[in-house]
Amino acid sequence: MTIGIIGSGALGSTFARALAKNGIPATISNKRGPESLASLVQEIGPFIKAGTVEEAAGADIVLAAIRWVDAENVLSSLPAWNGRIVIDGTNPVEFLAPDSPDAKDPNNPLAAYGLKAADLGGRYSSEIVKQYVPGARVVKAFNHNGVEALLEPEVAGGQRVLFYSGDDIAAKAEVRKIIEAIGFFPVDLGSLDVGGPLASLPFGALSSHNFIKI
Questions:
Q1: Is the full-model pTM beyond 0.70?
Q2: pLDDT for 30-52, tens place per residue?
Q3: Cross-strand partners of 212
Q4: Which pLDDT belongs to residue 48?
Q5: What is the secondary structure of 31-61 as a DSSP string?
Q6: Over the stretch 60-110, which tens digit does the pLDDT of each residue have?
Q7: Which of 37, 110, 148, 158 could form a disulfide with 212 if both were Cys (CB 3.0 to 4.6 A apart)?
Q8: Is 157 exposed, middle or buried (0-12, 13-18, 19+ CB in 10 A)?
C-alpha cells in the first residue's frame, strides 16, 4: 500500500518523519510544489520523496494534513478517489491574527492559543470532510494529540495510544497497520459518527489526552 501526504506543515512533516524512522516510504506534497520540499526530504532521508498534491493523492492511503480553512479547496479539486483511503487528520480550528477581535474575545476559550473553533453548523469535522472526498474511504486518525507525540510512541514504560475511527472495516485495518508499524497502540473508536467527535480537537472528550498502554 502506497502512502501520500497532503500538507507539509507540523502534522504532515512529523508524520513523514515517523514513517521514515520506521523505514516506510511515502510521498509528501504541498500547494507550493515539490521544489519547496527539497530541504525537508533531504533532512528526513531516502524513504520520503516530494511530489505534487495530485501525485500524493494518487496513493492507496492519503493523509490529509491540511488546515481546516484549506480543506474544501484542496480536497474538492482532486480527481476521483475510487475507493482509496483518506486519513482525515484535520481539526476544525481557525488560526487567528494576534490583533483580531477573536484573539481578544474573553468568550473564546482558545484565544490564548491563537485559535478559535470553526462553526460546523452542528456537524462534526469528518462528516464534512467526507463530502470533499466522494468515493474515498475515510478514517479519522493522527489528529487527537500534539504532533510531537508522533515521534514518541514509547513513554512511561508503555506504548502511547492512537485513536482511529471509520465506517469501512478494511480501510481501518490498513490504518491500524500504519499505527502499529510506527510503534503505537491502536484503539478503534468505532464508526466515524462515534469516534470522529470523540477524538476531534479542540473539544472532543478524548482529544488532547495522552493515554499509555502499559
A1: yes
A2: 999 999 999 999 999 999 999 99
A3: 160
A4: 98
A5: TT-GGGGHHHHHHH-TTEEE--HHHHHTSSE
A6: 999 999 999 999 999 999 999 999 999 999 999 999 999 888 898 999 889
A7: 158
A8: exposed
* pLDDT higher at 100 or 160: 160
pLDDT in tens, 196-206: 999 999 999 99
* Residue 102, pLDDT score: 86
What is residue 150's DSSP assignment?
Answer: G
Q: Label the pairing between strands 154-155 and 137-141.
A: unpaired
In whole angstroms, how far apart are CA 161 and each of 33, 96, 124, 130, 141? 33, 30, 22, 25, 11
User: Per residue in 180-207, is it b (16+ CB within 10 Å) or e — as a string?
Assistant: eebbbbbbebeebeebbbbbbbbebebb
* Peptide linkage before 202 cis (omega within 30 of 0): yes
If you write DSSP's letter for every residue of 95-149 in order, what string do you get? Answer: E--TTSGGGG-TT-TTGGGTEEE---TT--HHHHHHHHSTT-EEEEES-SS-GGG
What are the C-alpha distances in Å from 35 to residues 20, 38, 47, 63? 20, 5, 17, 20
For 91, residues 6+ apart whose C-beta sits below 8 A from its C-beta are 68, 125, 143, 200, 201, 202
